[in-house]
Amino acid sequence: MMKIRFTDNEKHLNFCPLALTRPIAEIRFGILTVKEAWSHYFEINNIKTQIYFSTEDYLQEKFPNHKQADIIIAGNCKPSHQIMSAILDLKADETLMHSGRWLAQRGNGSAKTVSIDDSATIWIDEIWDIFQKNNLALALDFKHLIANRISETISPSSQVIAPENIFIESGAKVECAILNASDGPIYIGKDAEVMEGAMIRGGFALGSHSTVKMGAKIYGATTIGPECKVGGEISNCVIQGYSNKGHDGFLGNSVIGEWCNLGADTNSSNLKNNYNPVKIYNFQTKQLESTDNLFCGLLMGDHSKTGINTMLNTATTVGVSANIFGAEFPPKFIPSFSWGATEPFDFNKAMEVAQNMMKRRGIELTSADLNILKHIAMQS
User: Fold this and answer.
1) Where do you find CATH 2.160.10.10 in the chain?
2) Which of 22, 80, 122, 160 sits most deeply, having the most CB atoms within 10 A of its CB?
3) How far apart are CA 148 and CA 146, in angstroms?
């Protein structure tokens, strides 16, 4: 059994608020999380693995570490076949560099350094890279997931463009929809459903047991993780999983965590009226910082919610377990455990909401989850 340890690579705070509740390797972009992408490679090479993480101390109960891992891998890198082969070829204590960056090592990495250049491998260094590089990650994951496999038949009730770029898993239902995969692949996961009248342009991925509701308008590159319900208008977004945007309203250039719910007619601006680059909240400096990004919508941590008709400014960052409502635009940074954007959200009441939502998916809030959320609440 090979022991694999993913490291946050000294970039943990760059990916908050998502990384408040997970290591970087557990972040989804493309079709798979970083960990899932690597695990897929090991699996197709018939290598059994045990996965560990080097991350923040308060996360280690849920995501345990292992000091004596066989291979250590950068958790902010999604690999190609060429990179995977290079890692499997590493000898004892060798280090693998990719285009001048440390990518992995076997053992302590003190022996020979192996260098490789490969344009297919994808690095993410900031949270906005998740949606900005999602088109590349979708194409990479799609290529590897469908290799030597045959898609389920696409129903003749749907209008399809570029069917060779569409893959439908078993149990999925797609009826009377428009699927255009000419600009990127479309992947429909196991037991997922695309309802009548939905219009989808690739690249697009729909996770297992997720639903695209009637009349939805989705533009690539967009990823909807498992167990989600989405509707309205969505453009270039990544929803990690177990979250809902089930009604009308616009969401663009955004990253949404797990167990979130966007109330009916929630709208998020993704471009300033003056067309200037946006400022985004920085979890290291704890203030808004200038960026080069013209487009950025909503960056939302796990368990957060918006009420109906919520209006969100360009590049709004929301922490964990915030409950946002009100007639005015809330601040561009909303801390974790906020009530109505400005008041504190009672921890016990927040946990009641979290447990109620998770039970609807048949999942329990574990003691490890609770300890993580307690830590975040104490730091907010």
Assistant:
1) 134-379
2) 22
3) 6
